[in-house]
Structures are given as C-alpha cells and as structure tokens.
C-alpha cells in the first residue's frame, strides 16, 4: 500500500536543533515525532554504554523492529530525530534534513548542556567535518538530502519548518493526489 504521508529524518550533530525542529514540525503537521535517543533509553534498546563518550551502544535490530511496528513503512507521517541516519532503510525515507550550526553557537549550546573534554571535542569535530551531511549523502539519493542552517539567525527555526511543511504539501500532491486521480 502506498504511504499517505512522507517520512522525514532530521539529523545533525548533537545540539544543532533536531528536537526543537522535530517538535515544531510534528505540532504543525500532526506527524509523529520519534526521538531515537528517547526510544533507545525507554525501551532498553542498548547494549553497553561507551564509558568515555557516555553514549549508548544501540541494539540496531531491536530498534528497527520497533520502528517497523510503528507503521512508518505502511502509513508514513513519521519524523525520525537522531544524530545518525545510516541505519534507516532507504525505502522508508522520503526526506533527510541535515541541520547545521555555526561552530561558536554550537560550542556554547553543548557547553550549556554539560558536554566537556573528549565528548565536546568530538562533537565539534563532527560538525566542522560535516560528518552527518556526508553520511546522509552516502546513504540516500542526493535529491532527498537537504541542508538547513539552525544557528538561530533571523528566526531560522520557523523558516526551516515552514520549508519542510511546503515540501510535505508538494510530496502529497506528487504521491497521493496524482495517484488517486489516475
Ligand atoms: P538536538 O536535538 O540537535 O540535540 P536541540 O533541539 O535540543 O538540539 O537544541 C539545542 C539547544 O539549541 C536548545 O536549547 C534549543 O532551544 C537551541 N536551538 C536549537 N535550534 C535553534 C535555533 N534554530 N534557534 C535558536 N535556538 C535554537
């Protein structure tokens, strides 16, 4: 069965604004926001903690089974929010939004969050080396990967979310209305 709504990945280095964007987009569209970090924690989909970085090592099979059970492949309308995107099968995903942030702004946000030492450094390196953008481009078709700035200039949050909403409208026209009319 064809999906009625697209599935959207919002990715980027920690602190760029994924959750903030995903929550507003979910509110405006009625889509379901799935914070992968939250699910991993709540459902216990992790093996061990990387002690040095303080991050969970995710049990990917369990996570994928859980996501499949949400109906994202049949119904759509899901926003996946995570600092990685290579795990999600291409057939599930219609748009990949990679949020980017000025390094000074990001540094402040991460410091405020209590990141320090190696964890802070690695995340800064990841943003500077645009690791998530490369990961998105390697895993998905170029035309579905969009890079948006989320440094907090000129109310970029509303602007970015507005752009994604317009894209959703267009997706519906191209994929649902057209097919219904055939
Ligand atoms: P992530 O989910 O990527 O870790 P968050 O959404 O938690 O990032 O955002 C981190 C912090 O940065 C929050 O305090 C949030 O309010 C702020 N922030 C994120 N995006 C913007 C933006 N575009 N403009 C202003 N502040 C932002």
UniProtKB/TrEMBL annotation:
GO terms for cellular component: cytoplasm; nucleus. One of its GO terms (biological process) is ribosomal small subunit biogenesis. Residues 35-58 are annotated as: NMPbind. Keywords: ATP-binding, Cytoplasm, Hydrolase, Kinase, Nucleotide-binding, Nucleus, Ribosome biogenesis, rRNA processing, Transferase. Residues 112-122 are annotated as: LID. Coiled coil: none annotated. Broad-specificity nucleoside monophosphate (NMP) kinase that catalyzes the reversible transfer of the terminal phosphate group between nucleoside triphosphates and monophosphates. Has also ATPase activity. Involved in the late cytoplasmic maturation steps of the 40S ribosomal particles, specifically 18S rRNA maturation. While NMP activity is not required for ribosome maturation, ATPase activity is. Associates transiently with small ribosomal subunit protein uS11. ATP hydrolysis breaks the interaction with uS11. GO terms for molecular function: AMP kinase activity; ATP binding; ATP hydrolysis activity. It catalyses: AMP + ATP = 2 ADP; ATP + H2O = ADP + phosphate + H(+). It comes from the Eukaryota. This is Adenylate kinase isoenzyme 6 homolog. Belongs to the adenylate kinase family. AK6 subfamily. Its EC number is 2.7.4.3. InterPro entries: Adenyl_kinase_AK6 (IPR020618), P-loop_NTPase (IPR027417). Interacts with small ribosomal subunit protein uS11. Not a structural component of 43S pre-ribosomes, but transiently interacts with them by binding to uS11. It is found in: Cytoplasm; Nucleus. HAMAP family: Adenylate_kinase_AK6. ATP binds at residues 15, 17-20, 113, 153. It is an enzyme of class 2 (transferase). Its main location: cytoplasm.
